[in-house]
Amino acid sequence: MAVQTTISIDERGLLQTCASCGQRNRVPFGKTANCGKCGTTLADPAEPVEVPSVAAFDALVRGSRVPVVVDFWAPWCGPCRMVSPIYDKLAEEYEGKFKFCKINVDENQDTTRKYQIMSIPMQMFFVNGKKVDEILGAVPEHTIRTMVDGLLESSATDD
Predict the structure, then answer these.
(1) Is position 80 annotated as part of the catalytic site?
(2) Is 77 a catalytic residue?
(3) Which of 5, 35, 85, 100 meets the CB 3.0–4.6 Å disulfide criterion with 40?
């Protein structure tokens, strides 16, 4: 019987529960890892990961080996709730190629201030630790997908 994968994050990496044996593992940003108990390869998250702090955010963006999109949102925001299922779907589709993260602006005001978030939903895109683009507001899936595909294409040619 497989164990449900659960993922959280701190400034040192992803804290991931192995889907095979249930062992909790730390995976440093930018690295791949195997479970310390059973040896199963730990896949990149197939769902958006909630980022809890400025330190975790900075470490994630700097250390990611794939492009990152961060969705700044709040639970009371109707347009944010409209965009959320799109991010869930795209995170699964682009697993291992693009990292999808979420920052609750009410719970993480330091990061919100650092990036001068004045309106939500706001999506910021990062490649190699640098902000490269953003989308403000609730937009259709094809708009987000076009941005993701374009960044994947341009980051592949940069390698």
Answers:
(1) yes
(2) yes
(3) 35
